[in-house]
Structure formats: C-alpha cells, structure tokens
Write a structure and sequence with these properties.
This protein is mainly β. The strands form 4 sheets. Strands 11, 12, 13, 14, 16, 19 and 21 form a 7-stranded antiparallel sheet that branches. A 5-stranded mixed sheet has the order 1-4-9-6-7, with no helix packed on it. A hairpin with a 3-residue loop joins strand 2 and strand 3. The longest helix has 19 residues. The relative contact order is 0.15.
Length: 246
C-alpha cells in the first residue's frame, strides 16, 4: 500500500505541472488589455493598449472582428497549430480577425501597442479585399479611388462583407467631410489625433483624439443621422469608417 501511495505522489508531480503550463483560451471580452468603449446590437468596440515587452493573452474571437492600428508596432503572433509569426504593423492598417480565431500577441521593441478592435455582432459572409490585403490569400478588388469635392478627402475602401464596408478616409488639412449612411449605421474612428473636430447639426464641436469615434444611427435620432468632421491641423488626418447595412 505504501508503495502505491509513493507511486501516485510521484505521478502527480509529473502530470499536474504539465497541465498547469498549458494556457487556457479566454474570450476576447475577458482579455484584460481590451477595454469596451461601445456596445450596441451591431458592434462591440474595444480600445487596446499594451506596454512594450508585454503581451495580449491567449484569447478567442467569438465574432468576426476588425482591428485598426493606431501606431506602428512590431509583434509576434502565437496561434495554435501555426508557426509563430513576426509582423510589422503600420498605423491605419486594417486587419481581419475572423470568428473562431484564437491567438496571443507579444509586443516587441520599445513602443506601446495601440489599436481599436471592432467586433461585428451580426453574421458576416462574402468577405473580400478591396484596396488592402485584409483577407490573406485573396486578390484585391479595388474600385477607382474616390476623390470628391476637389480632393478635400480621399476614400480608400479596404474590406467588405455582405453587411459591412470598411474604408480608410484621408481628410486633407483644414477640410471637412459630412459622415452619414442612408443605408443604415456608420462608425467612424479617428486614427490620428487630436486633429479632428466633430459636430452634429447645431451642437457644439468636440475634439476627437486618436482612437475616439463617432457612432451614427439614422433610425434612433434624426439629429444624429449625420455629423461633420473637420481636420483642424496642417497634416492629412486618417479616419476608418464602417458602413453597416441593414
């Protein structure tokens, strides 16, 4: 009997530590670097900030998500069943993190990692690249660049599904654009800042810092069906827009 007990104790010393070393996969909403800043029936918007040499914990995506980089960053992505991937990410870059994807991200170098992650809560299908490689391995289907109002801004479509179109808008210095979506709802995220001011109708203007956003819902309040965004600096300002169709 004593011999059996010794065997069980020794077996536990080998088995239990190996299990403890296996990291558990948590949902995105529980990852401590992701801070929820907007929730409605269409999107969850998370602000993400990670110090240099820290890491985003292993987590899974329960919805299709679009990540928007606010700054350049060097990272190493760890995903189950795949080799580690070292990546250089650029400010303004749009990336797809699809439903079911699980990964952790180590922050390399000496720069803080900052992004905005938008979960698309309605089912998405027919994902395709437009003017940027968002879905790996797919060709670009880039329409002609949309230069409007004497090039006050340029709209560069990045990615689309049957319900959503994501675009990068380049707003020229001291110019303004009216944001609206007659087909549904619109989310606009400032990549640069503080460089933008926004106002709806006669309301007071407010400053948008990098990572801050405007939510426009034509069905809830007519006064918020459109907003004017102005670049108040001498440099081009970047805005990422999500046109969400009913």
């Amino acid at each position: 009997m004593e011999a059996i007990l010794r065997f069980l104790v020794l077996a536990a010393l080998f088995v239990f530590p190996s299990r403890a070393q296996t990291p558990s996969v948590i949902p995105l909403s529980s990852e401590p670097h992701h801070h929820l800043v907007l929730h409605n029936q269409y999107v969850n918007v998370y602000h993400v900030e990670v110090a240099p040499q820290d890491a985003v914990l292993l987590h899974r995506h329960d919805f299709d998500a679009i990540s928007i980089m606010l700054d350049d960053a060097d990272v190493t992505v760890h995903a189950s069943g795949r080799p580690d991937a070292s990546q250089h990410l650029s400010g303004g870059q749009v990336r797809l993190q699809p439903l079911g994807y699980a990964h952790s991200t180590a922050i390399e170098g000496n720069k803080t990692y900052r992004n905005i992650t938008v979960e698309l809560l309605l089912p998405q299908k027919d994902e395709s690249n437009l003017c940027a490689v968002v879905v790996a391995g797919q060709p670009l289907r880039c329409p002609a660049t949309q230069a409007k109002q004497e090039s006050r801004w340029v709209d560069q479509p990045q990615f689309q599904t049957d319900r959503t179109t994501v675009s990068l808008v380049l707003l020229q210095p001291h110019q303004e654009i009216t944001l609206s979506n007659p087909a549904g709802r619109l989310l606009a995220i400032a990549v640069d800042g503080p460089s933008l001011e926004t106002k709806a109708g006669k309301s007071d203007a407010r400053t948008l810092n990098a990572g801050e956003f405007v939510w426009i819902d034509k069905s809830s309040d007519k006064s918020s069906a459109a907003q004017i965004v102005k670049n108040v600096t001498d440099k081009t300002a970047r805005i990422v827009t999500f046109n969400l169709r009913d």
